[in-house]
Amino acid sequence: MNTTPEERLAAAGHELPPVAPPVAVYVPAVVSGHYVHTSGQLPVVGGTLLRTGKVGGEVTPEQGAELARQCALNALAAVASVAGDLSAVKRVVKVVGFVASAPDFTGQPGVVNGASELLGTAFGDAGIHARSAVGVAVLPLDAPVEVEITVELHTPMGV
């Protein structure tokens, strides 16, 4: 019996949240043919940013990875909002993670692993993706982490 990505996430103790409302003039996700591109997602739950500050400063790398996991859940919610559900996803193509970093912090890849691991939980081998993990001085609302994803759909939409 095949399980859905949502069921795999639930088995790991994760639930897709409601789509986080934009903090400026943009939409959470856009479909273009076979692809869904999400906007950058912050670690927001119930409209509240979970933490503020810099990773390697006020935020530990382990906390940063957990925040990146929440960003990925929010990105998946954005994908599901335009694709119907996560079973429409053929594979995760690309992940871009931004880490607000203390000046001497160089562990951005480990922080963004939180998002990558969650996508692997949801999609198995189809969750393996190309990725960038970038250290930045500051992110919107002083969030420690922001994640955006691109996924390929089984069937093109809006064509």
Tally of extended strands? 6
Q: Label the overall shape.
A: globular
**First-to-last CA distance:** 32 Å
The arrangement of helices and strands along the chain is: HEEEHEHEE
Strand order of the largest sheet: 1-6-4-5
Number of helices: 3
Q: Oligomer, anyone?
A: single chain
The percent of residues in helical segments reads 25-40%
| Low-pLDDT segments | none
Q: Give the mean pLDDT.
A: 96
Quote the beta fraction.
25-35%
Query: Largest beta sheet, briefly?
Result: 4 strands, mixed
Structural class: alpha+beta
Query: Roughly how many Å is the radius of gyration?
Result: 15 Å
Describe the structure.
- This protein has 159 residues and is an alpha+beta fold.
- 29% of the residues lie in helices and 29% in strands.
- It has helices spanning 5-11, 61-83, 108-123; strands at residues 29-38, 44-45, 48-49, 89-100, 130-136, 145-157.
- The strands form 2 sheets. Strands 1-6-4-5 form a 4-stranded mixed beta sheet. It has a two-stranded antiparallel ribbon with strand order 2-3.
- The chain is globular.
- The mean pLDDT is 96.
